[in-house]
Protein backbone atom coordinates (compact mmCIF):
# COMPACT_ATOMS: atom_id res chain seq x y z
CA UNK A 1 0.00 0.00 0.00
CA UNK A 2 1.31 3.43 -0.97
CA UNK A 3 1.18 5.71 2.08
CA UNK A 4 2.87 8.87 0.84
CA UNK A 5 3.13 10.79 -2.41
CA UNK A 6 6.84 10.16 -2.45
CA UNK A 7 6.19 6.41 -2.35
CA UNK A 8 3.81 6.93 -5.25
CA UNK A 9 6.53 8.73 -7.20
CA UNK A 10 9.02 5.96 -6.39
CA UNK A 11 6.59 3.34 -7.62
CA UNK A 12 6.09 5.18 -10.91
CA UNK A 13 9.84 5.61 -11.39
CA UNK A 14 10.39 1.92 -10.65
CA UNK A 15 7.99 1.00 -13.45
CA UNK A 16 10.54 2.53 -15.84
CA UNK A 17 7.83 3.29 -18.32
CA UNK A 18 8.34 6.87 -19.44
CA UNK A 19 4.97 8.21 -20.48
CA UNK A 20 4.70 10.90 -23.09
CA UNK A 21 2.98 14.00 -21.74
CA UNK A 22 1.64 16.54 -24.20
CA UNK A 23 1.05 20.03 -22.86
CA UNK A 24 -1.49 22.41 -24.38
CA UNK A 25 -0.26 26.01 -24.69
CA UNK A 26 2.97 25.38 -22.82
CA UNK A 27 4.50 28.81 -22.99
CA UNK A 28 4.67 30.05 -19.44
CA UNK A 29 7.54 29.50 -17.04
CA UNK A 30 5.22 27.92 -14.51
CA UNK A 31 4.17 25.05 -16.78
CA UNK A 32 7.58 24.59 -18.38
CA UNK A 33 9.21 24.56 -14.95
CA UNK A 34 6.97 21.73 -13.72
CA UNK A 35 7.41 19.72 -16.92
CA UNK A 36 11.16 20.25 -16.95
CA UNK A 37 11.42 18.94 -13.40
CA UNK A 38 9.49 15.77 -14.31
CA UNK A 39 11.62 15.20 -17.41
CA UNK A 40 14.80 15.73 -15.38
CA UNK A 41 13.60 13.18 -12.83
CA UNK A 42 13.21 10.68 -15.64
CA UNK A 43 9.47 10.41 -15.11
CA UNK A 44 8.22 11.49 -18.53
CA UNK A 45 8.96 12.67 -22.04
CA UNK A 46 7.35 15.96 -22.94
CA UNK A 47 5.69 17.38 -26.03
CA UNK A 48 4.98 21.09 -25.78
CA UNK A 49 2.25 22.56 -28.00
CA UNK A 50 2.22 26.32 -28.50
CA UNK A 51 4.05 29.17 -30.17
CA UNK A 52 7.50 27.69 -30.61
CA UNK A 53 9.13 31.09 -30.45
CA UNK A 54 7.48 31.85 -27.11
CA UNK A 55 8.40 28.43 -25.69
CA UNK A 56 12.02 28.88 -26.71
CA UNK A 57 12.08 32.36 -25.21
CA UNK A 58 10.73 31.12 -21.88
CA UNK A 59 13.20 28.23 -21.82
CA UNK A 60 16.04 30.65 -22.38
CA UNK A 61 15.01 32.96 -19.55
CA UNK A 62 14.58 30.01 -17.20
CA UNK A 63 17.89 28.46 -18.26
CA UNK A 64 16.19 25.27 -19.49
CA UNK A 65 17.52 23.28 -22.43
CA UNK A 66 14.66 23.27 -24.95
CA UNK A 67 16.13 20.40 -26.96
CA UNK A 68 14.85 17.82 -24.44
CA UNK A 69 11.25 18.66 -25.43
CA UNK A 70 9.45 17.96 -28.65
CA UNK A 71 7.87 21.23 -29.82
CA UNK A 72 4.65 21.40 -31.83
CA UNK A 73 3.48 24.68 -33.34
CA UNK A 74 0.03 26.08 -32.57
CA UNK A 75 -1.05 29.66 -33.02
CA UNK A 76 -3.65 30.04 -30.29
CA UNK A 77 -5.04 28.45 -27.09
CA UNK A 78 -7.92 26.75 -28.84
CA UNK A 79 -5.80 25.10 -31.50
CA UNK A 80 -3.14 24.15 -28.99
CA UNK A 81 -5.78 22.37 -26.90
CA UNK A 82 -7.31 20.44 -29.76
CA UNK A 83 -3.87 19.55 -31.15
CA UNK A 84 -2.72 18.24 -27.77
CA UNK A 85 -5.91 16.16 -27.43
CA UNK A 86 -5.47 14.89 -31.00
CA UNK A 87 -1.94 13.69 -30.27
CA UNK A 88 -3.19 11.62 -27.33
CA UNK A 89 -6.18 10.35 -29.23
CA UNK A 90 -3.89 9.19 -32.07
CA UNK A 91 -1.53 7.47 -29.69
CA UNK A 92 1.35 9.89 -30.23
CA UNK A 93 1.18 10.76 -26.56
CA UNK A 94 -0.18 9.09 -23.42
CA UNK A 95 -1.22 11.95 -21.19
CA UNK A 96 -2.51 15.44 -21.88
CA UNK A 97 -1.87 18.40 -19.62
CA UNK A 98 -3.28 21.90 -19.46
CA UNK A 99 -0.75 24.74 -19.88
CA UNK A 100 -1.55 28.43 -19.77
CA UNK A 101 -4.90 27.94 -21.51
CA UNK A 102 -8.08 28.57 -19.52
CA UNK A 103 -9.54 25.45 -17.91
CA UNK A 104 -12.86 25.82 -19.67
CA UNK A 105 -11.28 26.12 -23.10
CA UNK A 106 -9.02 23.18 -22.43
CA UNK A 107 -11.82 20.91 -21.14
CA UNK A 108 -13.92 21.81 -24.17
CA UNK A 109 -11.33 20.08 -26.33
CA UNK A 110 -11.16 17.13 -23.93
CA UNK A 111 -14.94 16.79 -23.93
CA UNK A 112 -15.47 17.19 -27.66
CA UNK A 113 -17.87 14.43 -28.65
CA UNK A 114 -15.95 13.23 -31.69
CA UNK A 115 -12.37 14.33 -31.18
CA UNK A 116 -12.28 14.40 -27.39
CA UNK A 117 -11.16 11.91 -24.78
CA UNK A 118 -14.33 11.20 -22.82
CA UNK A 119 -15.28 7.60 -22.18
CA UNK A 120 -18.77 6.96 -23.54
CA UNK A 121 -21.43 8.09 -21.07
CA UNK A 122 -18.84 8.90 -18.43
CA UNK A 123 -19.09 11.64 -15.83
CA UNK A 124 -16.20 14.11 -15.84
CA UNK A 125 -14.90 14.49 -12.32
CA UNK A 126 -11.76 14.94 -10.26
CA UNK A 127 -10.05 12.88 -7.59
CA UNK A 128 -7.24 14.18 -5.46
CA UNK A 129 -4.81 12.27 -3.22
CA UNK A 130 -3.88 14.38 -0.20
CA UNK A 131 -0.84 13.90 1.97
CA UNK A 132 -1.45 15.48 5.35
CA UNK A 133 1.27 15.11 8.00
CA UNK A 134 -1.40 14.79 10.71
CA UNK A 135 -3.09 11.78 9.04
CA UNK A 136 -1.63 8.30 9.05
CA UNK A 137 -2.11 7.64 5.34
CA UNK A 138 -3.10 9.28 2.09
CA UNK A 139 -6.60 10.69 1.93
CA UNK A 140 -8.42 10.70 -1.40
CA UNK A 141 -11.03 13.40 -1.83
CA UNK A 142 -13.60 14.04 -4.50
CA UNK A 143 -14.64 16.27 -6.21
CA UNK A 144 -12.74 19.48 -5.37
CA UNK A 145 -12.51 20.81 -8.91
CA UNK A 146 -15.11 19.90 -11.51
CA UNK A 147 -18.72 19.21 -10.41
CA UNK A 148 -20.27 22.06 -8.40
CA UNK A 149 -23.34 20.22 -7.06
CA UNK A 150 -23.15 16.51 -7.89
CA UNK A 151 -26.45 14.66 -8.20
CA UNK A 152 -26.84 11.04 -7.16
CA UNK A 153 -25.47 9.58 -10.41
CA UNK A 154 -22.51 11.93 -10.31
CA UNK A 155 -21.83 11.07 -6.68
CA UNK A 156 -21.85 7.37 -7.58
CA UNK A 157 -19.38 8.05 -10.42
CA UNK A 158 -17.20 10.08 -8.04
CA UNK A 159 -17.18 7.19 -5.58
CA UNK A 160 -16.24 4.71 -8.30
CA UNK A 161 -13.39 6.91 -9.55
CA UNK A 162 -12.01 7.39 -6.06
CA UNK A 163 -12.24 3.66 -5.32
CA UNK A 164 -10.43 2.90 -8.58
CA UNK A 165 -7.65 5.35 -7.70
CA UNK A 166 -7.32 4.00 -4.16
CA UNK A 167 -7.05 0.50 -5.66
CA UNK A 168 -4.09 1.69 -7.75
CA UNK A 169 -2.44 2.82 -4.55
CA UNK A 170 -2.81 -0.69 -3.18
CA UNK A 171 -5.87 0.01 -1.02
CA UNK A 172 -7.99 -2.98 -2.00
CA UNK A 173 -11.18 -2.18 -0.14
CA UNK A 174 -11.05 1.54 0.64
CA UNK A 175 -13.17 2.98 3.42
CA UNK A 176 -15.24 5.74 1.92
CA UNK A 177 -16.90 8.39 4.07
CA UNK A 178 -19.73 10.43 2.60
CA UNK A 179 -19.17 13.80 4.17
CA UNK A 180 -21.73 16.10 5.74
CA UNK A 181 -21.91 18.41 8.75
CA UNK A 182 -23.37 15.65 10.92
CA UNK A 183 -23.93 11.91 10.86
CA UNK A 184 -27.67 12.35 11.39
CA UNK A 185 -30.19 12.21 8.59
CA UNK A 186 -32.05 15.45 8.27
CA UNK A 187 -34.21 17.25 5.78
CA UNK A 188 -31.97 20.34 5.94
CA UNK A 189 -29.09 18.22 4.62
CA UNK A 190 -30.15 17.17 1.16
CA UNK A 191 -27.01 15.10 0.70
CA UNK A 192 -28.12 12.68 3.42
CA UNK A 193 -30.76 11.33 1.05
CA UNK A 194 -28.22 10.49 -1.67
CA UNK A 195 -25.82 9.16 0.93
CA UNK A 196 -28.29 6.64 2.38
CA UNK A 197 -29.11 5.45 -1.10
CA UNK A 198 -25.42 5.01 -1.88
CA UNK A 199 -24.78 3.11 1.35
CA UNK A 200 -27.56 0.69 0.53
CA UNK A 201 -26.13 0.32 -2.98
CA UNK A 202 -22.78 -0.55 -1.41
CA UNK A 203 -24.58 -3.06 0.87
CA UNK A 204 -26.06 -4.67 -2.19
CA UNK A 205 -22.75 -4.57 -4.08
CA UNK A 206 -24.12 -2.08 -6.62
CA UNK A 207 -21.10 0.02 -5.67
CA UNK A 208 -18.36 -2.55 -5.31
CA UNK A 209 -14.98 -2.93 -3.58
CA UNK A 210 -15.47 -0.49 -0.75
CA UNK A 211 -16.66 -0.05 2.80
CA UNK A 212 -19.02 2.92 2.70
CA UNK A 213 -20.77 4.99 5.32
CA UNK A 214 -22.41 8.36 5.43
CA UNK A 215 -23.50 10.91 6.30
CA UNK A 216 -20.46 11.34 8.52
CA UNK A 217 -18.68 14.47 9.62
CA UNK A 218 -14.90 14.74 9.14
CA UNK A 219 -14.20 13.80 12.76
CA UNK A 220 -16.16 10.56 12.56
CA UNK A 221 -14.55 9.86 9.18
CA UNK A 222 -10.93 10.47 10.15
CA UNK A 223 -10.66 10.30 13.92
CA UNK A 224 -11.32 7.05 15.75
CA UNK A 225 -11.53 8.82 19.09
CA UNK A 226 -14.49 10.83 17.88
CA UNK A 227 -16.44 7.71 16.97
CA UNK A 228 -15.90 6.43 20.50
CA UNK A 229 -16.85 9.72 22.15
CA UNK A 230 -19.94 10.09 20.03
CA UNK A 231 -20.81 6.42 20.21
CA UNK A 232 -21.46 6.22 16.50
CA UNK A 233 -21.12 2.72 15.15
CA UNK A 234 -19.61 3.13 11.69
CA UNK A 235 -17.61 0.71 9.56
CA UNK A 236 -15.40 3.62 8.42
CA UNK A 237 -14.38 3.88 12.05
CA UNK A 238 -12.26 7.03 11.89
CA UNK A 239 -10.00 5.42 9.30
CA UNK A 240 -11.32 6.79 6.00
CA UNK A 241 -9.34 6.38 2.79
CA UNK A 242 -11.76 8.44 0.74
CA UNK A 243 -13.86 11.49 1.55
CA UNK A 244 -16.72 12.20 -0.83
CA UNK A 245 -18.02 15.74 -0.47
CA UNK A 246 -21.53 17.01 -1.18
CA UNK A 247 -20.33 20.02 -3.18
CA UNK A 248 -17.37 21.78 -4.70
CA UNK A 249 -17.81 24.56 -2.18
CA UNK A 250 -17.15 22.15 0.67
CA UNK A 251 -14.36 20.04 -0.87
CA UNK A 252 -12.36 22.86 -2.42
CA UNK A 253 -11.91 24.90 0.77
CA UNK A 254 -11.15 21.66 2.63
CA UNK A 255 -8.11 20.83 0.52
CA UNK A 256 -6.94 24.41 0.15
CA UNK A 257 -7.12 24.85 3.91
CA UNK A 258 -4.97 21.79 4.36
CA UNK A 259 -2.43 23.01 1.78
CA UNK A 260 -2.17 26.40 3.44
CA UNK A 261 -2.37 25.59 7.15
CA UNK A 262 -1.46 21.93 7.56
CA UNK A 263 1.51 21.49 5.19
CA UNK A 264 -0.54 19.33 2.84
CA UNK A 265 0.64 18.19 -0.57
CA UNK A 266 -1.57 16.81 -3.27
CA UNK A 267 -1.74 14.86 -6.49
CA UNK A 268 -4.96 15.27 -8.45
CA UNK A 269 -6.35 14.04 -11.72
CA UNK A 270 -9.37 14.41 -13.97
CA UNK A 271 -11.46 11.23 -14.21
CA UNK A 272 -13.85 9.93 -16.82
CA UNK A 273 -11.44 10.10 -19.75
CA UNK A 274 -9.81 7.35 -21.80
CA UNK A 275 -6.36 8.78 -21.13
CA UNK A 276 -5.16 10.79 -18.12
CA UNK A 277 -5.86 14.51 -18.22
CA UNK A 278 -3.87 16.83 -15.96
CA UNK A 279 -5.37 20.13 -14.89
CA UNK A 280 -3.64 21.92 -12.08
CA UNK A 281 -3.83 25.37 -10.71
CA UNK A 282 -0.90 27.74 -10.90
CA UNK A 283 -1.07 28.35 -7.19
CA UNK A 284 -0.17 24.78 -6.33
CA UNK A 285 3.30 24.11 -4.96
CA UNK A 286 6.10 22.84 -7.23
CA UNK A 287 5.98 19.53 -5.42
CA UNK A 288 2.24 19.11 -5.88
CA UNK A 289 2.57 19.88 -9.60
CA UNK A 290 5.20 17.22 -9.92
CA UNK A 291 3.05 14.77 -7.99
CA UNK A 292 0.11 15.47 -10.31
CA UNK A 293 2.29 14.43 -13.24
CA UNK A 294 3.49 11.33 -11.37
CA UNK A 295 -0.10 10.39 -10.52
CA UNK A 296 -1.12 10.66 -14.16
CA UNK A 297 1.65 8.17 -14.99
CA UNK A 298 0.42 5.81 -12.28
CA UNK A 299 -3.11 5.97 -13.66
CA UNK A 300 -2.10 5.81 -17.34
CA UNK B 1 -39.37 -13.86 22.43
CA UNK B 2 -41.12 -14.76 19.23
CA UNK B 3 -44.77 -15.64 18.58
CA UNK B 4 -45.09 -18.92 16.70
CA UNK B 5 -48.82 -18.55 16.15
CA UNK B 6 -51.70 -16.29 17.07
CA UNK B 7 -52.64 -18.52 19.95
CA UNK B 8 -49.37 -17.50 21.63
CA UNK B 9 -51.00 -14.11 22.20
CA UNK B 10 -53.08 -15.79 24.88
CA UNK B 11 -49.99 -16.38 26.97
CA UNK B 12 -49.31 -12.65 26.91
CA UNK B 13 -52.87 -11.79 27.89
CA UNK B 14 -52.85 -14.32 30.71
CA UNK B 15 -50.04 -12.47 32.40
CA UNK B 16 -51.69 -9.05 32.56
CA UNK B 17 -54.79 -7.55 34.21
CA UNK B 18 -57.91 -8.11 32.16
CA UNK B 19 -58.58 -5.27 29.70
CA UNK B 20 -61.87 -3.46 29.26
CA UNK B 21 -63.11 -3.47 25.68
CA UNK B 22 -65.87 -1.12 24.60
CA UNK B 23 -67.84 -2.21 21.53
CA UNK B 24 -69.41 0.76 19.75
CA UNK B 25 -72.72 0.16 17.93
CA UNK B 26 -72.72 -3.25 19.54
CA UNK B 27 -75.96 -4.41 17.93
CA UNK B 28 -73.95 -6.38 15.38
CA UNK B 29 -74.12 -10.14 15.22
CA UNK B 30 -70.54 -10.73 13.97
CA UNK B 31 -68.76 -8.54 16.47
CA UNK B 32 -70.97 -9.71 19.32
CA UNK B 33 -70.05 -13.31 18.60
CA UNK B 34 -66.32 -12.59 18.79
CA UNK B 35 -66.65 -10.36 21.85
CA UNK B 36 -68.79 -12.94 23.62
CA UNK B 37 -66.23 -15.66 23.00
CA UNK B 38 -63.34 -13.44 24.14
CA UNK B 39 -65.30 -12.62 27.29
CA UNK B 40 -65.95 -16.29 27.98
CA UNK B 41 -62.26 -17.04 27.53
CA UNK B 42 -61.31 -14.30 30.00
CA UNK B 43 -59.45 -12.28 27.41
CA UNK B 44 -61.41 -9.08 27.88
CA UNK B 45 -64.06 -7.46 30.00
CA UNK B 46 -66.57 -6.06 27.47
CA UNK B 47 -68.84 -3.03 27.64
CA UNK B 48 -71.52 -2.95 24.95
CA UNK B 49 -72.75 0.43 23.72
CA UNK B 50 -75.67 0.40 21.27
CA UNK B 51 -79.32 -0.46 20.81
CA UNK B 52 -79.94 -2.58 23.90
CA UNK B 53 -83.11 -4.16 22.58
CA UNK B 54 -81.33 -5.36 19.44
CA UNK B 55 -78.31 -6.51 21.42
CA UNK B 56 -80.53 -8.63 23.67
CA UNK B 57 -82.40 -10.11 20.74
CA UNK B 58 -79.19 -11.06 18.85
CA UNK B 59 -77.75 -12.62 21.99
CA UNK B 60 -80.83 -14.66 22.75
CA UNK B 61 -81.12 -15.93 19.19
CA UNK B 62 -77.50 -17.14 19.33
CA UNK B 63 -77.80 -18.34 22.92
CA UNK B 64 -75.18 -15.90 24.23
CA UNK B 65 -75.76 -15.67 27.98
CA UNK B 66 -74.74 -12.11 28.73
CA UNK B 67 -75.91 -11.94 32.31
CA UNK B 68 -73.61 -9.60 34.17
CA UNK B 69 -72.34 -7.82 31.04
CA UNK B 70 -72.49 -4.04 31.11
CA UNK B 71 -74.71 -2.60 28.39
CA UNK B 72 -75.15 1.12 27.71
CA UNK B 73 -78.30 1.77 25.74
CA UNK B 74 -77.64 4.21 22.88
CA UNK B 75 -79.77 3.38 19.85
CA UNK B 76 -78.33 6.13 17.60
CA UNK B 77 -75.17 4.58 16.07
CA UNK B 78 -73.17 7.85 15.86
CA UNK B 79 -74.01 8.62 19.48
CA UNK B 80 -72.97 5.15 20.56
CA UNK B 81 -69.54 5.66 19.01
CA UNK B 82 -69.19 9.02 20.73
CA UNK B 83 -70.09 7.43 24.06
CA UNK B 84 -67.64 4.59 23.50
CA UNK B 85 -64.79 6.92 22.52
CA UNK B 86 -65.44 9.16 25.51
CA UNK B 87 -65.24 6.15 27.81
CA UNK B 88 -61.76 5.52 26.46
CA UNK B 89 -60.56 9.10 26.69
CA UNK B 90 -61.84 9.24 30.27
CA UNK B 91 -59.89 6.04 30.97
CA UNK B 92 -62.91 3.87 31.68
CA UNK B 93 -61.92 1.37 28.99
CA UNK B 94 -58.72 0.12 27.32
CA UNK B 95 -59.74 -1.05 23.83
CA UNK B 96 -62.15 0.34 21.27
CA UNK B 97 -63.98 -1.93 18.85
CA UNK B 98 -66.18 -1.13 15.89
CA UNK B 99 -69.62 -2.74 15.65
CA UNK B 100 -72.38 -1.92 13.21
CA UNK B 101 -71.08 1.44 12.03
CA UNK B 102 -69.04 2.66 9.08
CA UNK B 103 -65.29 2.89 9.59
CA UNK B 104 -65.27 6.52 8.50
CA UNK B 105 -67.76 7.49 11.22
CA UNK B 106 -65.79 5.66 13.86
CA UNK B 107 -62.48 7.21 12.79
CA UNK B 108 -64.02 10.67 12.73
CA UNK B 109 -64.90 10.23 16.39
CA UNK B 110 -61.46 8.81 17.18
CA UNK B 111 -59.90 11.91 15.64
CA UNK B 112 -62.24 14.39 17.39
CA UNK B 113 -60.09 17.18 18.71
CA UNK B 114 -61.92 17.65 22.02
CA UNK B 115 -62.76 14.17 23.20
CA UNK B 116 -61.13 11.87 20.64
CA UNK B 117 -58.17 9.55 21.02
CA UNK B 118 -55.48 11.53 19.20
CA UNK B 119 -51.88 11.22 20.34
CA UNK B 120 -50.26 13.24 17.58
CA UNK B 121 -49.20 10.00 15.88
CA UNK B 122 -50.38 8.89 12.48
CA UNK B 123 -53.03 6.17 12.58
CA UNK B 124 -51.90 3.01 10.84
CA UNK B 125 -53.10 -0.52 10.30
CA UNK B 126 -51.17 -3.43 11.77
CA UNK B 127 -51.89 -7.01 10.77
CA UNK B 128 -50.42 -10.16 12.26
CA UNK B 129 -50.48 -13.29 10.11
CA UNK B 130 -50.10 -16.92 11.00
CA UNK B 131 -49.00 -18.73 7.84
CA UNK B 132 -48.15 -22.41 7.85
CA UNK B 133 -45.20 -21.90 5.53
CA UNK B 134 -43.37 -19.38 7.77
CA UNK B 135 -41.56 -20.21 10.98
CA UNK B 136 -43.34 -17.59 13.11
CA UNK B 137 -46.09 -15.01 12.89
CA UNK B 138 -45.37 -12.15 10.52
CA UNK B 139 -46.62 -8.60 10.92
CA UNK B 140 -47.57 -6.58 7.86
CA UNK B 141 -48.20 -2.85 7.65
CA UNK B 142 -49.97 -0.88 6.25
CA UNK B 143 -52.49 -2.84 4.22
CA UNK B 144 -55.64 -0.89 4.93
CA UNK B 145 -55.25 2.66 6.13
CA UNK B 146 -52.53 4.77 4.55
CA UNK B 147 -52.81 4.82 0.79
CA UNK B 148 -49.45 6.00 -0.49
CA UNK B 149 -47.34 6.85 2.53
CA UNK B 150 -44.56 9.40 2.15
CA UNK B 151 -41.17 8.73 3.71
CA UNK B 152 -42.28 10.73 6.72
CA UNK B 153 -45.44 8.64 7.05
CA UNK B 154 -43.51 5.41 6.58
CA UNK B 155 -41.36 6.40 9.55
CA UNK B 156 -44.52 6.92 11.63
CA UNK B 157 -45.97 3.61 10.45
CA UNK B 158 -42.78 1.75 11.37
CA UNK B 159 -42.67 3.47 14.77
CA UNK B 160 -46.29 2.52 15.51
CA UNK B 161 -45.69 -1.09 14.54
CA UNK B 162 -42.36 -1.43 16.31
CA UNK B 163 -43.86 -0.03 19.54
CA UNK B 164 -46.63 -2.61 19.23
CA UNK B 165 -44.18 -5.46 18.60
CA UNK B 166 -42.08 -4.28 21.54
CA UNK B 167 -45.19 -4.59 23.71
CA UNK B 168 -45.74 -8.07 22.34
CA UNK B 169 -42.31 -9.01 23.64
CA UNK B 170 -40.11 -8.42 20.58
CA UNK B 171 -37.10 -6.45 21.86
CA UNK B 172 -35.56 -5.80 18.44
CA UNK B 173 -38.05 -6.80 15.74
CA UNK B 174 -36.59 -7.32 12.29
CA UNK B 175 -38.20 -4.99 9.79
CA UNK B 176 -38.03 -5.62 6.04
CA UNK B 177 -38.84 -2.69 3.80
CA UNK B 178 -40.45 -4.30 0.82
CA UNK B 179 -39.63 -3.53 -2.81
CA UNK B 180 -40.03 -5.34 -6.11
CA UNK B 181 -36.26 -5.91 -6.01
CA UNK B 182 -33.61 -5.92 -3.35
CA UNK B 183 -31.42 -3.53 -5.33
CA UNK B 184 -31.61 0.22 -5.13
CA UNK B 185 -33.29 1.53 -8.26
CA UNK B 186 -33.63 5.25 -8.81
CA UNK B 187 -36.87 4.71 -10.72
CA UNK B 188 -38.51 2.86 -7.84
CA UNK B 189 -39.29 5.25 -5.00
CA UNK B 190 -39.93 2.35 -2.61
CA UNK B 191 -36.30 1.24 -2.92
CA UNK B 192 -35.04 4.75 -2.23
CA UNK B 193 -37.27 5.16 0.83
CA UNK B 194 -36.05 1.75 1.99
CA UNK B 195 -32.43 2.90 1.82
CA UNK B 196 -33.28 6.01 3.84
CA UNK B 197 -35.17 4.06 6.49
CA UNK B 198 -32.23 1.65 6.82
CA UNK B 199 -29.80 4.49 7.34
CA UNK B 200 -32.04 6.28 9.86
CA UNK B 201 -32.20 3.02 11.77
CA UNK B 202 -28.39 2.68 11.71
CA UNK B 203 -28.15 6.19 13.12
CA UNK B 204 -30.66 5.36 15.84
CA UNK B 205 -33.18 7.82 14.43
CA UNK B 206 -35.65 4.92 14.23
CA UNK B 207 -35.10 2.89 17.37
CA UNK B 208 -35.81 -0.50 18.92
CA UNK B 209 -35.69 -2.48 15.70
CA UNK B 210 -33.38 -3.65 12.92
CA UNK B 211 -34.39 -2.33 9.51
CA UNK B 212 -33.19 -3.56 6.13
CA UNK B 213 -34.52 -2.74 2.73
CA UNK B 214 -35.18 -2.82 -0.07
CA UNK B 215 -35.83 -6.52 0.14
CA UNK B 216 -37.96 -8.36 -2.36
CA UNK B 217 -40.71 -10.50 -0.80
CA UNK B 218 -38.82 -13.75 -1.38
CA UNK B 219 -35.60 -12.68 0.25
CA UNK B 220 -37.49 -11.02 3.12
CA UNK B 221 -39.06 -14.32 4.17
CA UNK B 222 -36.69 -16.95 2.83
CA UNK B 223 -33.10 -17.23 3.97
CA UNK B 224 -32.35 -19.60 1.13
CA UNK B 225 -33.50 -17.11 -1.44
CA UNK B 226 -31.50 -14.32 0.24
CA UNK B 227 -28.39 -16.47 0.24
CA UNK B 228 -28.85 -17.38 -3.40
CA UNK B 229 -28.80 -13.69 -4.18
CA UNK B 230 -25.81 -13.11 -1.92
CA UNK B 231 -27.63 -10.64 0.29
CA UNK B 232 -25.95 -9.96 3.60
CA UNK B 233 -28.69 -8.91 5.94
CA UNK B 234 -29.74 -9.48 9.52
CA UNK B 235 -33.34 -9.26 8.44
CA UNK B 236 -33.53 -11.33 5.27
CA UNK B 237 -35.24 -14.68 5.78
CA UNK B 238 -36.19 -13.84 9.36
CA UNK B 239 -38.52 -10.86 9.03
CA UNK B 240 -40.87 -9.98 11.88
CA UNK B 241 -42.47 -6.97 10.18
CA UNK B 242 -43.00 -6.27 6.50
CA UNK B 243 -43.38 -2.61 5.56
CA UNK B 244 -45.47 -2.23 2.41
CA UNK B 245 -44.67 0.42 -0.18
CA UNK B 246 -48.36 1.30 -0.58
CA UNK B 247 -51.88 0.13 0.07
CA UNK B 248 -52.30 -1.72 -3.24
CA UNK B 249 -49.36 -4.00 -2.61
CA UNK B 250 -50.35 -4.39 1.03
CA UNK B 251 -53.99 -5.13 0.41
CA UNK B 252 -53.30 -7.66 -2.32
CA UNK B 253 -50.70 -9.41 -0.16
CA UNK B 254 -53.13 -9.47 2.79
CA UNK B 255 -55.90 -11.01 0.75
CA UNK B 256 -53.56 -13.44 -1.03
CA UNK B 257 -52.34 -14.72 2.31
CA UNK B 258 -55.89 -15.17 3.56
CA UNK B 259 -57.40 -16.70 0.42
CA UNK B 260 -54.55 -18.67 -1.13
CA UNK B 261 -52.35 -19.45 1.86
CA UNK B 262 -55.27 -19.91 4.29
CA UNK B 263 -53.50 -17.63 6.73
CA UNK B 264 -55.04 -16.67 10.05
CA UNK B 265 -54.97 -12.93 10.65
CA UNK B 266 -55.42 -10.51 13.53
CA UNK B 267 -55.42 -6.78 12.92
CA UNK B 268 -55.72 -3.53 14.82
CA UNK B 269 -55.38 0.19 14.26
CA UNK B 270 -52.37 1.78 15.97
CA UNK B 271 -51.48 5.38 16.68
CA UNK B 272 -54.48 6.32 18.86
CA UNK B 273 -54.51 6.34 22.66
CA UNK B 274 -55.56 2.69 22.62
CA UNK B 275 -55.62 -0.15 20.09
CA UNK B 276 -58.73 -0.13 17.93
CA UNK B 277 -60.34 -3.29 16.59
CA UNK B 278 -61.70 -2.27 13.23
CA UNK B 279 -62.38 -5.46 11.40
CA UNK B 280 -64.63 -5.48 8.38
CA UNK B 281 -67.85 -7.38 8.00
CA UNK B 282 -66.19 -9.76 5.59
CA UNK B 283 -63.65 -10.88 8.20
CA UNK B 284 -64.39 -14.25 9.78
CA UNK B 285 -65.48 -14.45 13.39
CA UNK B 286 -62.15 -16.12 14.11
CA UNK B 287 -60.31 -13.13 12.66
CA UNK B 288 -62.39 -10.80 14.83
CA UNK B 289 -61.66 -12.90 17.88
CA UNK B 290 -57.93 -12.97 17.11
CA UNK B 291 -57.97 -9.21 16.60
CA UNK B 292 -59.51 -8.74 20.05
CA UNK B 293 -56.80 -11.01 21.42
CA UNK B 294 -54.11 -8.96 19.68
CA UNK B 295 -55.61 -5.69 20.97
CA UNK B 296 -55.64 -7.04 24.51
CA UNK B 297 -52.03 -8.17 24.25
CA UNK B 298 -50.91 -4.89 22.71
CA UNK B 299 -52.83 -2.65 25.08
CA UNK B 300 -50.65 -0.62 27.44
CA UNK B 301 -53.13 0.27 30.14
Tell me about the biggest sheet of chain A? 6 strands, mixed
The beta-strand count of chain A equals: 11
Tell me, what's the shape of chain A? elongated
Structural class given helices, strands, pairing of chain B? Answer: alpha/beta
Strand content of chain A: 15-25%
Give the helix level of chain A as a range of percent: 40-55%
The domain count of chain B comes to: 2
Shape category of chain B: elongated
Spatial strand arrangement across the major sheet of chain A: 8-7-9-6-5-10
The name of the CATH superfamily of the largest domain in chain A reads: Isopropylmalate Dehydrogenase
Annotation field: number of helices of chain B: 11
Mean pLDDT of chain B: 95
Strand order, largest beta sheet of chain B: 8-7-9-6-5-10
Give a verbal description of the structure.
- The complex is a heterodimer of chains A (300) and B (301).
- With 300 residues, chain A is of the alpha/beta class.
- Chain A is 42% helix and 18% strand.
- Chain A folds into 2 domains: 114 residues, 3-Layer(aba) Sandwich (Isopropylmalate Dehydrogenase); 137 residues, Isopropylmalate Dehydrogenase, CATH 3.40.718.10.
- Chain A is built from 11 helices and 11 strands.
- The longest helix of chain A is centred in the middle third of the chain and has 17 residues.
- Chain A is elongated.
- The relative contact order of chain A is 0.17.
- The model of chain A has no long low-confidence stretch (mean pLDDT 95).
- Chain B is an alpha/beta fold and 301 residues long.
- In chain B, helix 4 packs parallel to helix 5.
- In chain B, strands 8-7-9-6-5-10 form a 6-stranded mixed sheet, with helices on both faces.
- Helix content of chain B is 40%, strand content 19%.
- The interface between A and B is medium-sized, with 19 and 20 residues.
